[in-house]
Every structure is written in C-alpha cells, then in structure tokens.
Here is the input.
Amino acid sequence: MSKPAEVIIETSATDSLPDEGVDGDKLFMRQLKEEEIRAKLDAFAKELAQVKSDRDEH
Here is the structure.
C-alpha cells in the first residue's frame, strides 16, 4: 500500500521578510546583513566541498 507524499514548499528568506514600513536605513542594513550571511554560507559550502573531495581521495 502506498501513501501520497507530502509536498513542502519553501519560500525564500526575502519573501518572508516584509519590506513595508521599514525605513531606508534599516532595509539597507538588513540587506547588507543578508549579503554577509550568504557570503559566509558560500565560503562554508566551498570549504565543505573541498574537505569532502579530500576525504574521497583517500
């Protein structure tokens, strides 16, 4: 017997953060922080891929 799979839909973080009513400085700071977090995540992903590659070679 099979059961139907549950569908999960994710929205991006920017969709979940309302920009209405936020002044320009706060919006700019939030965007800057998001860019900083994305850069850190990207660097971590590259480091993780390198470690995985090194581990697979041995």
